[in-house]
Design brief:
By secondary structure, the protein is mostly beta strands. Helix content is 1%, strand content 45%.
């Protein structure tokens, strides 16, 4: 007898369209075609047009726009499977713009930048000779040193295009003059009717003084010798038994002026003064909670036996020498004060001292170590 054998196949071919990936933004006008299929014959279409491309080949040049790629597989039983991916070709790099930056020159060790680009972009930033790293607007920097600096930022879009001409900003940091080594301090002998006052600065500066704190710099008295790093002048009209405070501020060649006064304080002794007849008390003192402390830890600093319900000026040394402008702190009803802060200075040894604003008397300088 006659017979006929046949195979029933209702399973459609299996297709994996790997590249271009569905929904991808691609920074390549000739993207790679990559697919697999289980069986049958394959037809490839790009934007509904049949192309003679196979897996592992690059597509012909495509415009910057949205495109489709389709893989259609037909097996011997005429089962058909079609997979379509939509993708976007984007080969235009984004442009980056800096919208906010520090002044040039600047007297601050802090710097903050704001920047913009196309929607959906991310950013990479660098400062000076460092490498690029991911960042976001605004980007801030702290602890910058004196001198020239360069900030650079570039945008990267979702297709991976990188701004080939990053935005940059160059500026110079010029700190206000650091004033130190004020003289005289403490008590001068009775009969002193004039004395030489002096300070030093860490750069060539013009220094002035006033008997009142917070005076307008333009109205202050000019030191008779000034313009370099050593400044001095003679003051007269001094009387026995009186205390004197002179408030000093300096301006560098770029016009940076100290915002806080540097105090020179002294007293003219009085012959047979009551102070000599009174029982001596323990002198004012300051202390640190720790002699050695790690960065990021909290340091407590205290003072006692200063003028009650008054003020002290606290002078803290810088990492590279000199002192910061003084901090004004109010004392308690017992003449004490306490401050606490998180230590952020670089490793090294630092000193500080306190000046009693009322009497002009200065504490000893004590030190602590940042490890």
């Amino acid at each position: 007898p006659a017979s006929y054998t046949w195979v029933v196949d209702t399973a459609a071919p299996i297709i994996s369209l790997l590249s271009p990936a569905n929904g991808a933004n691609i920074a390549d006008s000739t993207p790679l075609l990559n697919y697999t299929f289980s069986d049958g014959t394959v037809v490839v279409k790009v934007d509904d047009v049949v192309v003679t491309k196979t897996s592992g080949e690059s597509l012909d040049i495509l415009s910057e726009a949205s495109h489709t790629v389709s893989i259609e597989a037909t097996d011997s039983a005429l089962n058909v499977t079609t997979v379509t991916n939509t993708f976007t070709v984007d080969i235009t790099a984004p442009d980056t713009t800096i919208s906010a930056n520090p002044n040039d020159p600047s007297s601050s060790s802090l710097a903050s930048f704001s920047f913009t680009s196309d929607a959906g972009t991310t950013f990479e930033c660098k400062i000076d000779s460092t490498n690029y790293s991911a960042c976001a607007s605004p980007k801030s920097y702290t602890g910058l040193g004196q001198g020239n600096h360069l900030f650079t930022v570039r945008a990267i879009d979702s297709a991976g295009n990188v701004d080939a001409s990053p935005a940059s900003y160059a500026w110079n940091i010029d700190f206000v003059p650091t004033v130190s080594a004020g003289s005289p301090w403490g008590k001068l002998r009775d009969g002193t009717r004039q004395t030489n006052i002096s300070v030093t600065t860490d750069e060539n500066s013009t220094c002035k003084y006033s008997y009142n704190s917070g005076s307008d710099f333009s109205l202050m008295n000019l030191f008779s010798t000034t313009g370099t790093t050593s400044h001095s002048t003679v003051i007269g009209g001094l009387s026995d038994g009186k205390s004197y405070g002179l408030f000093v501020r300096c301006q560098d060649a770029n016009g940076n002026i100290n915002q806080s006064d540097y105090l020179i304080s002294f007293r003219i002794d009085k012959d047979d003064s009551d102070d000599d007849k009174k029982k001596k008390t323990k002198p004012r003192s300051i202390s640190n909670s720790k002699k050695s402390i790690a960065r990021g830890a909290t340091l407590t600093q205290r003072g006692k036996k200063f003028s009650k319900n008054n003020y002290v000026l606290l002078y803290f040394s810088r990492f590279q020498g000199g002192y910061y402008a003084p901090q004004k702190i109010k004392t308690s009803s017992t003449g004490a004060f306490t401050i606490k802060y998180v230590v952020s200075k670089p490793k090294g040894k630092y000193g500080w001292y306190a000046v009693d604003v009322k009497t002009g008397k200065k504490s000893k300088t004590i030190t602590y170590k940042v490890k």
